[in-house]
Amino acid sequence: MKSADSRYHWMDRFVFVMAVPAIVAYLGLYALVPDVYTVGPAVLLLLALLASGRLWPGDHLQREDYVFMSALLVYFLAQCLVNLIHGEDISEFDLATRFLAGALVLVFTRRYIVSFGVFFFAVALGSVATGLLALYQMVQGTGGRVTSFDNPIHYGNGALALALVCSAGLVWSVQARNRVLWSLLLLAGFVLGLYASLMSGTRSGWVAAPVIVAVFAYTFFPSFQRHKVAVLIAAALLLLVTVMIVQVESVTQRTAVAVEEFQDYFAEGRNYTSVGLRLDMWKSGLTAFSENPLVGVGPSGYDVVEQKLIEQGQVHPGIAPFRHLHNQYIDAMAKGGIVGLAAYLYLLLAPFILFMRRVHSSDQVTRALALGGALFISTHAVVNLTQSMLERNIGVMMFIFIPLIIWSVMAKRDDEVRSRQSK
Fold first, then answer.
1. What does the record list as coiled-coil region(s) (predicted)?
2. What rounded mean pLDDT belongs to the chain?
3. Structure pTM?
4. Whose CA is closest to 111, among 408, 413, 418, 365?
5. Beta strands of 58-181 (E only): which ranges?
6. Of the candidates 401, 395, 422, 420, which has an alpha carbon nearest to the alpha carbon of residue 165?
7. Helices 364-383 and 209-220, axial angle in degrees (round to 10)
8. How many CA atoms lie within 13 A of 70 on its CB side?
9. Can you tell me the distance from the alpha carbon of 297 to that of 352, in angstroms, rounded to the nearest whole number?
10. Which residue, 113, 116, 245, 268, is most buried by CB atoms nearer than 10 A?
11. Positive or negative, the Cα torsion across 74, 80, 83, 89?
Protein backbone atom coordinates (compact mmCIF):
# COMPACT_ATOMS: atom_id res chain seq x y z
CA MET A 1 0.00 0.00 0.00
CA LYS A 2 3.07 2.28 0.30
CA SER A 3 4.95 3.65 -2.67
CA ALA A 4 8.64 3.03 -3.20
CA ASP A 5 9.61 6.19 -1.27
CA SER A 6 7.41 5.09 1.68
CA ARG A 7 4.98 7.99 1.24
CA TYR A 8 1.29 7.35 0.81
CA HIS A 9 -0.22 8.47 -2.44
CA TRP A 10 -3.30 10.62 -1.85
CA MET A 11 -5.50 7.99 -3.53
CA ASP A 12 -4.13 5.31 -1.23
CA ARG A 13 -4.93 7.42 1.82
CA PHE A 14 -8.44 8.25 0.64
CA VAL A 15 -9.59 4.75 -0.31
CA PHE A 16 -8.01 3.18 2.76
CA VAL A 17 -9.69 5.67 5.11
CA MET A 18 -13.02 4.92 3.41
CA ALA A 19 -12.47 1.15 3.38
CA VAL A 20 -11.68 0.71 7.08
CA PRO A 21 -15.11 1.72 8.50
CA ALA A 22 -16.88 -0.24 5.74
CA ILE A 23 -14.98 -3.42 6.65
CA VAL A 24 -15.25 -2.93 10.42
CA ALA A 25 -18.98 -2.11 10.26
CA TYR A 26 -19.64 -5.12 8.04
CA LEU A 27 -17.80 -7.54 10.32
CA GLY A 28 -19.27 -6.15 13.52
CA LEU A 29 -22.86 -5.41 12.54
CA TYR A 30 -23.93 -7.60 9.62
CA ALA A 31 -25.91 -9.94 11.91
CA LEU A 32 -27.48 -7.11 13.89
CA VAL A 33 -28.27 -4.05 11.78
CA PRO A 34 -30.40 -4.03 8.61
CA ASP A 35 -28.65 -3.28 5.31
CA VAL A 36 -25.12 -3.25 6.76
CA TYR A 37 -24.51 -6.56 5.01
CA THR A 38 -25.09 -4.78 1.67
CA VAL A 39 -23.81 -1.27 2.43
CA GLY A 40 -20.33 -2.37 3.52
CA PRO A 41 -19.61 -4.50 0.42
CA ALA A 42 -21.21 -1.82 -1.81
CA VAL A 43 -18.77 0.77 -0.45
CA LEU A 44 -15.87 -1.60 -1.09
CA LEU A 45 -17.07 -2.17 -4.66
CA LEU A 46 -17.31 1.58 -5.32
CA LEU A 47 -13.82 2.09 -3.90
CA ALA A 48 -12.53 -0.77 -6.06
CA LEU A 49 -13.91 0.91 -9.16
CA LEU A 50 -12.55 4.28 -8.06
CA ALA A 51 -9.06 2.86 -7.46
CA SER A 52 -9.10 0.54 -10.48
CA GLY A 53 -6.31 2.49 -12.17
CA ARG A 54 -3.99 1.68 -9.28
CA LEU A 55 -5.07 -1.96 -9.00
CA TRP A 56 -4.25 -3.15 -12.49
CA PRO A 57 -2.37 -4.93 -13.98
CA GLY A 58 -2.66 -6.67 -10.62
CA ASP A 59 1.02 -7.04 -9.82
CA HIS A 60 0.07 -7.12 -6.12
CA LEU A 61 -1.78 -10.42 -6.61
CA GLN A 62 -0.29 -13.87 -6.08
CA ARG A 63 -1.20 -17.10 -7.87
CA GLU A 64 -3.43 -18.26 -5.02
CA ASP A 65 -5.35 -14.97 -5.15
CA TYR A 66 -6.35 -15.85 -8.69
CA VAL A 67 -7.44 -19.32 -7.57
CA PHE A 68 -9.66 -17.76 -4.89
CA MET A 69 -11.00 -15.29 -7.42
CA SER A 70 -11.66 -18.07 -9.94
CA ALA A 71 -14.07 -19.76 -7.50
CA LEU A 72 -16.22 -16.63 -7.47
CA LEU A 73 -16.04 -16.14 -11.23
CA VAL A 74 -16.77 -19.78 -12.08
CA TYR A 75 -19.90 -19.71 -9.94
CA PHE A 76 -20.97 -16.41 -11.54
CA LEU A 77 -20.46 -17.75 -15.06
CA ALA A 78 -22.22 -21.04 -14.30
CA GLN A 79 -25.26 -19.22 -12.96
CA CYS A 80 -25.36 -16.96 -16.02
CA LEU A 81 -24.96 -19.92 -18.39
CA VAL A 82 -27.81 -21.87 -16.79
CA ASN A 83 -30.09 -18.83 -16.78
CA LEU A 84 -29.34 -18.09 -20.44
CA ILE A 85 -29.97 -21.70 -21.49
CA HIS A 86 -33.35 -21.71 -19.78
CA GLY A 87 -34.28 -18.19 -20.89
CA GLU A 88 -34.76 -16.93 -17.36
CA ASP A 89 -35.91 -13.42 -16.51
CA ILE A 90 -33.19 -10.81 -15.95
CA SER A 91 -34.01 -10.79 -12.22
CA GLU A 92 -32.57 -14.30 -11.91
CA PHE A 93 -29.13 -12.88 -12.72
CA ASP A 94 -29.22 -10.53 -9.73
CA LEU A 95 -27.67 -12.73 -7.03
CA ALA A 96 -25.05 -14.05 -9.45
CA THR A 97 -23.67 -10.54 -9.99
CA ARG A 98 -22.62 -10.46 -6.31
CA PHE A 99 -19.97 -13.08 -7.09
CA LEU A 100 -18.58 -10.95 -9.92
CA ALA A 101 -18.54 -7.98 -7.55
CA GLY A 102 -16.75 -10.14 -4.98
CA ALA A 103 -13.98 -10.93 -7.46
CA LEU A 104 -13.50 -7.20 -8.13
CA VAL A 105 -13.50 -6.39 -4.41
CA LEU A 106 -10.88 -9.11 -3.81
CA VAL A 107 -8.48 -7.27 -6.13
CA PHE A 108 -9.13 -4.16 -4.03
CA THR A 109 -8.86 -5.72 -0.56
CA ARG A 110 -5.61 -7.44 -1.46
CA ARG A 111 -4.12 -3.95 -1.67
CA TYR A 112 -6.26 -2.06 0.84
CA ILE A 113 -7.19 -4.13 3.90
CA VAL A 114 -7.27 -3.65 7.66
CA SER A 115 -4.61 -5.16 9.92
CA PHE A 116 -5.20 -8.52 11.56
CA GLY A 117 -5.59 -6.76 14.93
CA VAL A 118 -8.40 -4.54 13.63
CA PHE A 119 -9.99 -7.58 11.99
CA PHE A 120 -10.10 -9.69 15.16
CA PHE A 121 -11.24 -6.69 17.21
CA ALA A 122 -14.20 -6.08 14.85
CA VAL A 123 -15.16 -9.76 14.77
CA ALA A 124 -14.96 -10.07 18.56
CA LEU A 125 -17.08 -6.97 19.14
CA GLY A 126 -19.64 -8.20 16.61
CA SER A 127 -19.83 -11.59 18.28
CA VAL A 128 -20.12 -10.08 21.75
CA ALA A 129 -22.92 -7.81 20.49
CA THR A 130 -24.89 -10.74 19.05
CA GLY A 131 -24.61 -12.56 22.36
CA LEU A 132 -25.65 -9.51 24.38
CA LEU A 133 -28.71 -9.12 22.17
CA ALA A 134 -29.62 -12.74 22.84
CA LEU A 135 -29.13 -12.22 26.58
CA TYR A 136 -31.32 -9.11 26.49
CA GLN A 137 -34.13 -10.91 24.69
CA MET A 138 -33.95 -13.86 27.08
CA VAL A 139 -34.00 -11.55 30.14
CA GLN A 140 -36.96 -9.66 28.69
CA GLY A 141 -38.74 -12.98 28.34
CA THR A 142 -40.03 -12.26 24.86
CA GLY A 143 -40.48 -16.00 24.31
CA GLY A 144 -39.58 -18.05 21.27
CA ARG A 145 -36.29 -18.01 19.40
CA VAL A 146 -34.03 -14.95 19.66
CA THR A 147 -33.35 -13.04 16.46
CA SER A 148 -32.45 -9.63 15.07
CA PHE A 149 -33.71 -7.83 11.96
CA ASP A 150 -33.99 -10.94 9.78
CA ASN A 151 -35.07 -14.45 10.76
CA PRO A 152 -33.54 -16.62 13.51
CA ILE A 153 -31.74 -18.82 10.96
CA HIS A 154 -29.56 -16.08 9.53
CA TYR A 155 -29.07 -14.49 12.95
CA GLY A 156 -28.04 -17.81 14.50
CA ASN A 157 -25.72 -18.83 11.68
CA GLY A 158 -24.21 -15.34 11.57
CA ALA A 159 -23.52 -15.50 15.30
CA LEU A 160 -22.00 -18.96 14.93
CA ALA A 161 -19.70 -17.75 12.14
CA LEU A 162 -18.43 -14.88 14.30
CA ALA A 163 -17.97 -17.22 17.28
CA LEU A 164 -15.89 -19.66 15.24
CA VAL A 165 -13.62 -16.94 13.89
CA CYS A 166 -13.16 -15.74 17.49
CA SER A 167 -12.18 -19.26 18.54
CA ALA A 168 -9.60 -19.34 15.73
CA GLY A 169 -8.28 -15.96 16.87
CA LEU A 170 -7.38 -17.50 20.23
CA VAL A 171 -4.59 -19.38 18.40
CA TRP A 172 -2.89 -16.02 17.91
CA SER A 173 -4.03 -14.19 21.05
CA VAL A 174 -2.28 -16.55 23.48
CA GLN A 175 1.02 -15.35 22.01
CA ALA A 176 0.04 -11.73 21.32
CA ARG A 177 1.73 -8.78 23.01
CA ASN A 178 -1.34 -8.03 25.14
CA ARG A 179 -2.36 -11.68 25.26
CA VAL A 180 -4.55 -11.46 28.37
CA LEU A 181 -6.76 -8.69 26.97
CA TRP A 182 -6.93 -10.23 23.49
CA SER A 183 -7.66 -13.68 24.86
CA LEU A 184 -10.43 -12.40 27.12
CA LEU A 185 -12.02 -10.41 24.28
CA LEU A 186 -11.91 -13.30 21.80
CA LEU A 187 -13.05 -15.82 24.41
CA ALA A 188 -16.00 -13.57 25.26
CA GLY A 189 -16.78 -13.33 21.57
CA PHE A 190 -16.69 -17.10 21.20
CA VAL A 191 -18.88 -17.81 24.24
CA LEU A 192 -21.47 -15.09 23.55
CA GLY A 193 -21.62 -15.80 19.83
CA LEU A 194 -22.15 -19.49 20.55
CA TYR A 195 -24.82 -18.57 23.09
CA ALA A 196 -26.64 -16.45 20.48
CA SER A 197 -26.53 -19.35 18.03
CA LEU A 198 -27.98 -21.75 20.60
CA MET A 199 -30.72 -19.36 21.70
CA SER A 200 -31.71 -18.74 18.09
CA GLY A 201 -32.72 -22.39 17.84
CA THR A 202 -30.96 -22.70 14.48
CA ARG A 203 -30.44 -26.44 14.10
CA SER A 204 -28.58 -26.24 10.77
CA GLY A 205 -25.51 -24.78 12.46
CA TRP A 206 -25.40 -27.38 15.24
CA VAL A 207 -25.12 -30.20 12.71
CA ALA A 208 -21.71 -28.80 11.72
CA ALA A 209 -20.20 -29.71 15.13
CA PRO A 210 -18.43 -32.91 13.92
CA VAL A 211 -16.90 -31.06 10.95
CA ILE A 212 -15.75 -28.21 13.19
CA VAL A 213 -14.08 -30.71 15.52
CA ALA A 214 -12.41 -32.41 12.54
CA VAL A 215 -10.96 -29.11 11.27
CA PHE A 216 -9.62 -28.30 14.74
CA ALA A 217 -8.16 -31.81 15.06
CA TYR A 218 -6.37 -31.55 11.72
CA THR A 219 -5.05 -28.11 12.64
CA PHE A 220 -3.59 -29.09 15.99
CA PHE A 221 -2.56 -32.70 15.40
CA PRO A 222 1.05 -31.82 14.41
CA SER A 223 1.36 -29.87 17.68
CA PHE A 224 0.25 -32.78 19.81
CA GLN A 225 3.69 -34.31 20.25
CA ARG A 226 5.21 -30.96 21.25
CA HIS A 227 2.35 -29.60 23.35
CA LYS A 228 0.45 -32.58 24.69
CA VAL A 229 -0.77 -30.81 27.82
CA ALA A 230 -2.08 -27.79 25.91
CA VAL A 231 -3.88 -30.00 23.40
CA LEU A 232 -5.43 -32.10 26.16
CA ILE A 233 -6.66 -28.93 27.88
CA ALA A 234 -8.14 -27.71 24.59
CA ALA A 235 -9.85 -31.10 24.12
CA ALA A 236 -11.26 -30.91 27.64
CA LEU A 237 -12.62 -27.41 26.97
CA LEU A 238 -14.17 -28.64 23.73
CA LEU A 239 -15.81 -31.52 25.60
CA LEU A 240 -17.07 -29.09 28.22
CA VAL A 241 -18.60 -26.85 25.55
CA THR A 242 -20.25 -29.91 23.98
CA VAL A 243 -21.75 -30.92 27.32
CA MET A 244 -23.01 -27.36 27.83
CA ILE A 245 -24.65 -27.38 24.42
CA VAL A 246 -26.37 -30.68 25.09
CA GLN A 247 -27.71 -29.32 28.38
CA VAL A 248 -29.38 -26.31 26.70
CA GLU A 249 -33.09 -27.11 26.75
CA SER A 250 -33.88 -25.48 23.39
CA VAL A 251 -31.20 -27.59 21.71
CA THR A 252 -32.42 -30.89 23.12
CA GLN A 253 -36.06 -30.04 22.40
CA ARG A 254 -35.55 -28.96 18.80
CA THR A 255 -33.22 -31.89 18.14
CA ALA A 256 -35.78 -34.33 19.50
CA VAL A 257 -38.52 -32.72 17.41
CA ALA A 258 -36.40 -32.98 14.25
CA VAL A 259 -35.72 -36.68 14.85
CA GLU A 260 -39.41 -37.37 15.53
CA GLU A 261 -40.55 -35.50 12.41
CA PHE A 262 -37.97 -37.33 10.29
CA GLN A 263 -39.20 -40.71 11.54
CA ASP A 264 -42.87 -39.76 11.08
CA TYR A 265 -42.25 -38.71 7.47
CA PHE A 266 -41.16 -42.21 6.47
CA ALA A 267 -43.25 -44.20 8.91
CA GLU A 268 -46.55 -42.34 8.67
CA GLY A 269 -46.14 -40.08 5.64
CA ARG A 270 -46.43 -36.90 7.73
CA ASN A 271 -45.09 -34.27 5.34
CA TYR A 272 -46.64 -31.12 6.82
CA THR A 273 -44.02 -30.68 9.58
CA SER A 274 -40.88 -28.53 9.33
CA VAL A 275 -38.72 -31.55 8.50
CA GLY A 276 -41.45 -33.13 6.36
CA LEU A 277 -41.75 -30.05 4.16
CA ARG A 278 -37.97 -29.99 3.71
CA LEU A 279 -37.96 -33.63 2.65
CA ASP A 280 -40.74 -32.94 0.15
CA MET A 281 -38.74 -30.02 -1.24
CA TRP A 282 -35.75 -32.30 -1.70
CA LYS A 283 -37.97 -34.86 -3.39
CA SER A 284 -39.25 -32.30 -5.87
CA GLY A 285 -35.72 -30.99 -6.44
CA LEU A 286 -34.35 -34.43 -7.24
CA THR A 287 -37.29 -35.02 -9.57
CA ALA A 288 -36.43 -31.81 -11.42
CA PHE A 289 -32.76 -32.86 -11.62
CA SER A 290 -33.72 -36.21 -13.13
CA GLU A 291 -35.50 -34.41 -15.98
CA ASN A 292 -32.32 -32.63 -17.11
CA PRO A 293 -29.22 -33.81 -15.22
CA LEU A 294 -26.74 -31.70 -17.20
CA VAL A 295 -28.09 -28.16 -16.70
CA GLY A 296 -31.21 -28.71 -14.60
CA VAL A 297 -34.56 -27.16 -15.39
CA GLY A 298 -33.84 -23.59 -14.31
CA PRO A 299 -35.67 -21.60 -11.59
CA SER A 300 -38.87 -21.17 -13.59
CA GLY A 301 -38.73 -24.77 -14.82
CA TYR A 302 -38.48 -25.98 -11.24
CA ASP A 303 -41.69 -24.13 -10.38
CA VAL A 304 -43.43 -26.12 -13.12
CA VAL A 305 -42.10 -29.44 -11.80
CA GLU A 306 -43.05 -28.55 -8.25
CA GLN A 307 -46.60 -27.57 -9.20
CA LYS A 308 -47.04 -30.82 -11.13
CA LEU A 309 -45.96 -32.87 -8.10
CA ILE A 310 -48.33 -30.93 -5.85
CA GLU A 311 -51.25 -31.57 -8.21
CA GLN A 312 -50.38 -35.27 -8.29
CA GLY A 313 -50.36 -35.37 -4.50
CA GLN A 314 -46.74 -36.49 -4.33
CA VAL A 315 -45.61 -33.53 -2.22
CA HIS A 316 -47.35 -31.23 0.26
CA PRO A 317 -48.79 -27.93 -1.09
CA GLY A 318 -47.03 -26.17 1.79
CA ILE A 319 -43.74 -26.21 -0.13
CA ALA A 320 -45.10 -23.88 -2.83
CA PRO A 321 -44.41 -20.54 -1.04
CA PHE A 322 -40.71 -21.36 -0.52
CA ARG A 323 -38.38 -19.79 -3.06
CA HIS A 324 -35.61 -22.31 -2.42
CA LEU A 325 -35.32 -25.97 -1.46
CA HIS A 326 -33.60 -25.71 1.94
CA ASN A 327 -30.64 -27.65 0.57
CA GLN A 328 -28.12 -25.76 -1.54
CA TYR A 329 -26.78 -28.91 -3.18
CA ILE A 330 -30.19 -30.17 -4.32
CA ASP A 331 -31.19 -26.62 -5.23
CA ALA A 332 -28.12 -26.35 -7.47
CA MET A 333 -28.85 -29.75 -9.03
CA ALA A 334 -32.53 -29.01 -9.67
CA LYS A 335 -32.01 -25.61 -11.26
CA GLY A 336 -28.51 -25.97 -12.70
CA GLY A 337 -27.87 -29.70 -12.99
CA ILE A 338 -24.33 -31.05 -12.88
CA VAL A 339 -23.03 -27.69 -14.10
CA GLY A 340 -24.63 -25.86 -11.18
CA LEU A 341 -23.55 -28.44 -8.62
CA ALA A 342 -19.96 -28.54 -9.89
CA ALA A 343 -19.72 -24.75 -9.74
CA TYR A 344 -21.01 -24.73 -6.17
CA LEU A 345 -18.61 -27.47 -5.06
CA TYR A 346 -15.70 -25.56 -6.61
CA LEU A 347 -16.90 -22.43 -4.80
CA LEU A 348 -16.58 -24.37 -1.53
CA LEU A 349 -13.49 -26.46 -2.17
CA ALA A 350 -11.14 -23.89 -3.74
CA PRO A 351 -11.06 -21.45 -0.79
CA PHE A 352 -11.33 -24.26 1.77
CA ILE A 353 -8.20 -25.96 0.40
CA LEU A 354 -6.39 -22.63 0.23
CA PHE A 355 -7.15 -21.98 3.89
CA MET A 356 -6.32 -25.52 5.01
CA ARG A 357 -2.90 -25.31 3.36
CA ARG A 358 -2.01 -22.60 5.88
CA VAL A 359 -3.43 -23.98 9.13
CA HIS A 360 -0.01 -25.45 9.91
CA SER A 361 1.85 -22.21 9.23
CA SER A 362 4.68 -21.35 11.61
CA ASP A 363 3.29 -17.82 11.83
CA GLN A 364 0.52 -17.84 14.44
CA VAL A 365 -1.38 -14.93 12.87
CA THR A 366 -1.54 -16.70 9.51
CA ARG A 367 -2.48 -19.94 11.23
CA ALA A 368 -5.34 -18.31 13.17
CA LEU A 369 -6.74 -16.57 10.10
CA ALA A 370 -6.49 -19.73 8.01
CA LEU A 371 -8.30 -21.71 10.69
CA GLY A 372 -11.03 -19.06 10.83
CA GLY A 373 -11.50 -19.20 7.07
CA ALA A 374 -11.55 -23.01 7.00
CA LEU A 375 -14.08 -23.16 9.85
CA PHE A 376 -16.37 -20.68 8.09
CA ILE A 377 -16.32 -22.52 4.75
CA SER A 378 -16.77 -25.98 6.27
CA THR A 379 -19.61 -24.83 8.53
CA HIS A 380 -21.31 -23.17 5.57
CA ALA A 381 -21.00 -26.42 3.61
CA VAL A 382 -22.81 -28.33 6.36
CA VAL A 383 -25.41 -25.65 7.06
CA ASN A 384 -26.41 -25.78 3.40
CA LEU A 385 -27.45 -29.40 3.76
CA THR A 386 -30.66 -28.05 5.30
CA GLN A 387 -30.56 -24.46 4.04
CA SER A 388 -30.10 -22.67 0.71
CA MET A 389 -28.02 -19.75 1.93
CA LEU A 390 -27.06 -18.66 -1.57
CA GLU A 391 -30.66 -18.14 -2.63
CA ARG A 392 -31.06 -15.00 -0.50
CA ASN A 393 -29.06 -11.78 -0.65
CA ILE A 394 -28.13 -11.85 3.04
CA GLY A 395 -26.73 -15.38 2.74
CA VAL A 396 -24.82 -14.55 -0.44
CA MET A 397 -23.23 -11.44 1.05
CA MET A 398 -22.16 -13.31 4.17
CA PHE A 399 -20.66 -16.20 2.23
CA ILE A 400 -18.74 -14.04 -0.24
CA PHE A 401 -17.33 -11.30 1.93
CA ILE A 402 -16.38 -12.94 5.21
CA PRO A 403 -13.98 -15.48 3.60
CA LEU A 404 -12.83 -12.78 1.17
CA ILE A 405 -11.88 -10.41 3.99
CA ILE A 406 -10.22 -13.20 6.00
CA TRP A 407 -8.23 -14.21 2.92
CA SER A 408 -7.10 -10.65 2.23
CA VAL A 409 -6.00 -10.05 5.84
CA MET A 410 -4.14 -13.38 5.83
CA ALA A 411 -2.49 -12.71 2.47
CA LYS A 412 -1.36 -9.29 3.67
CA ARG A 413 0.22 -10.97 6.69
CA ASP A 414 1.94 -13.47 4.37
CA ASP A 415 3.34 -10.58 2.33
CA GLU A 416 4.71 -8.94 5.49
CA VAL A 417 6.31 -12.19 6.70
CA ARG A 418 7.96 -12.81 3.33
CA SER A 419 9.19 -9.21 3.23
CA ARG A 420 10.85 -9.58 6.66
CA GLN A 421 12.41 -12.90 5.73
CA SER A 422 13.90 -11.50 2.53
CA LYS A 423 15.73 -8.72 4.40
1. none
2. 83
3. 0.88
4. 408
5. none
6. 401
7. 160
8. 12
9. 29
10. 113
11. positive
